[in-house]
Each structure stands twice: as structure tokens, then as C-alpha cells.
Amino acid sequence: MDLQAERCLLTAKQIMDIKFVIHDHCKEWDMKDKEQCQKRKELKKAITEKMVLGETLDQAKIAVLEL
Q1: Buried (b) or exposed (e) across 31-59, using 16+ Cβ within 10 A?
Q2: What is the reported pTM?
């Protein structure tokens, strides 16, 4: 399933919460750095996938960001 299809399974609030978590985690990163932008997208996708599978935002955040 692609990210767009997965996002359809989440509420607008959940999607915004994911964006805020990623923004907070990556706020010191250089957004013009292609490698860091790609990593940011991968983090967002991983958290989204976990939430679609039924994990809470906190559970997904811990699992993904503490790897």
C-alpha cells in the first residue's frame, strides 16, 4: 500500500499530529539537504504505517524515532 492510500485510513488530526512530530524531531535539520529530506520522508512513512496498523502516535513515535 502506498503512503497516499495509507493516509486515507487516518483522520485529519492524526495526519497533522504526524506532521508535528516529524517537524519537532527534524527542526534542526537542513531542509535543502536532499539526504535529510529523504530521511524525513521515510520517518513520516514509517510512523504512518505503524498508525495504520493500529498503534498510537506515541507508540509509533517511540518505535520509529528511537531506532
Answers
A1: eeeeeeeeebeebbbebbebbbeebebee
A2: 0.80
In which band, very low, low, confident or very high, does the pLDDT at 67 lie, cut at 50, 70 and 90?
Answer: low
pLDDT tens track for 13-54: 998 999 999 989 888 888 788 898 899 899 999 999 999 889
Residue 1 three-state SS: coil
Q: Can you tell me whether residue 59 is helix, strand or coil?
A: helix
Which grid cell sits at 8? 486515507
4: which 3 cell numbers?
497516499
